[in-house]
Amino acid sequence: MGNTLAEKVWEGHIVRRGEGHEPDLLYIDLHLVHEVTSPQAFEGLRLAGRPVRRPDLTIATEDHNVPTTGIDLPIADPVSRTQVDTLRRNCEEFGVRLHPMGDAEQGIVHVVGPQLGLTQPGTTVVCGDSHTSTHGAFGALAFGIGTSEVEHVLATQTLPLRPFKTMAVNVEGTLRPGVTSKDVILAVIAKIGTGGGQGYVLEYRGEAIRQLSMEARMTICNMSIEAGARAGMIAPDETTFEYLKGRPHAPEGADWDAAVEYWKTLRTDEGAEFDAEVTIDADALTPFVTWGTNPGQGLPLGERIPDPADIGDDAERYAVEKALDYMGLEGGTPLREVAVDTVFLGSCTNGRIEDLRAAAGVLDGRKVAQDVRMLVVPGSMKVRLQAETEGLDEVFTAAGAEWRSAGCSMCLGMNPDQLAPGERSASTSNRNFEGRQGKGGRTHLVSPLVAAATAVRGTLSSPEDLD
Ligand SMILES: CC(C)[C@H](C(=O)O)[C@@H](O)C(=O)O
Ligand code: SF4
């Protein structure tokens, strides 16, 4: 028999095994905090007169509500200002390390953890944020929690959890040039649906996954949640160890050697059984884009928007009609003919240095189309600095794109970077539901390469479409 990777990490963290229908109590190694889901949790501690049990395992950053221009000015929006001020007060009072706006380590919580080497194989990582699944790329068991659970973890460093089911997502073969991990995960979600992963921890496996960089792996695990999964994981390997070595919180010397020895054991045993399995042929994949209002409504860029007239099933036809109506699209239109107003390159899905490099590679020597605005928002201030060191900011601004400070930005409408009603974007983020990027805004989820090519041509495009 043997165990899956997820089961191994779970077993290694049981503080108290649940009896009967009770949940297991798990130890939490790393608790990430941001301004949106933490205020009530800290308030709960305050009312109960409790301290934060392990401030050394807790780290906070400002990301959702921060503007990405004029960050030295007070936040203009009163709601956002209150959120950020509250986080600052709470972190000060409870002794939690915080990276505020303007700090060299500030950024989106899921970019900051890995960057600091805090996210490590075999650990349990939680945050009051669904995209905590990102950290599973290191072989960590990482999942989003609600605000009352945030309070529980702050108070006890443990969490009662019910066991999950496991699903193997085998990505076999080799990705073609120009096809990225974003295309893989959009194809996985289109295949299994936005509810297909419900109750499961997904383990991404196979040759194509092993060939991916750490950042590309994070993109895949990040969107596990869009398939409805509890978490996503990838077994750690040399790529993982190389990424971690020398990072501020990575083990050193003899501790490093011991850690690597342990990390090497973190793989699904031969013969271990998954509750479900799905296989994707990497060789057959091409750039993928969404046309609808959920992340499962995606197709290869070379195809046409589904025509409701071709759909026999009433419920399915209605869902497509409704999505096309909101999106302002005609069934049967080639995806390549869909014109956008805005291109957003950023978010915890695709706001890392490799994403910026990929997009800059396409934009170098080219211009953003006249009626298109392009926002480039690094996932963290460290990513921003690295990009500037490499001159990528100059490539973006020379092309006519806006170069911003770090934050969630246009991934969601909680800060000034938003779509106006009816505006259409090609966005490297992870969610495309109605109003996600601003009331009435229309979102097409794409990879950084497609985002850059789309900015140049003004319609959904891949770099192959450029002269
Ligand atoms: C605001 C936060 C709770 C939310 C999440 O949990 O994912 C946000 O990050 C998102 O991407 O929608
Ligand atoms: S970048 Fe987007 S998905 Fe990621 S944490 Fe921020 S709002 Fe959520």
From TrEMBL:
Domain (Aconitase/3-isopropylmalate dehydratase large subunit alpha/beta/alpha) ranges: 7-458
Record keyword Cell cycle present: no
Pfam families named among the record's database cross-references: Aconitase
Keyword Transferase among record annotations: no
EC number: 4.2.1.33
InterPro entries per record: 3-IsopropMal_deHydase_lsu, Acnase/IPM_dHydase_lsu_aba_1/3, Acoase/IPM_deHydtase_lsu_aba, Aconitase_4Fe-4S_BS, Aconitase_4Fe-4S_dom, IPM_dehydratase_rel_enz, IPMI_cat
Associated pathway: Amino-acid biosynthesis; L-leucine biosynthesis; L-leucine from 3-methyl-2-oxobutanoate: step 2/4
Reactions listed under catalytic activity: (2R,3S)-3-isopropylmalate = (2S)-2-isopropylmalate
Residues holding [4Fe-4S] cluster: 348, 408, 411
Swiss-Prot/TrEMBL keywords: 4Fe-4S, Amino-acid biosynthesis, Branched-chain amino acid biosynthesis, Iron, Iron-sulfur, Leucine biosynthesis, Lyase, Metal-binding
Names of required cofactors: [4Fe-4S] cluster
Positions in coiled-coil regions: none
PROSITE patterns the record matches: ACONITASE_1, ACONITASE_2
Domain of life according to the entry: Bacteria
Cofactor mode of binding and number, as noted: Binds 1 [4Fe-4S] cluster per subunit.
Region (Disordered): 418-444
Self-association state and partner proteins as the record states: Heterodimer of LeuC and LeuD.
Protein family per UniProt: Belongs to the aconitase/IPM isomerase family. LeuC type 1 subfamily.
Cross-referenced NCBIfam families: leuC (TIGR00170), PRK05478.1 (NF004016), PRK12466.1 (NF009116)
UniProt function note: Catalyzes the isomerization between 2-isopropylmalate and 3-isopropylmalate, via the formation of 2-isopropylmaleate.
Name of this chain's protein: 3-isopropylmalate dehydratase large subunit
Organism the protein comes from: Saccharopolyspora gregorii
Source lineage: Bacteria, Bacillati, Actinomycetota, Actinomycetes, Pseudonocardiales
Gene designation: leuC
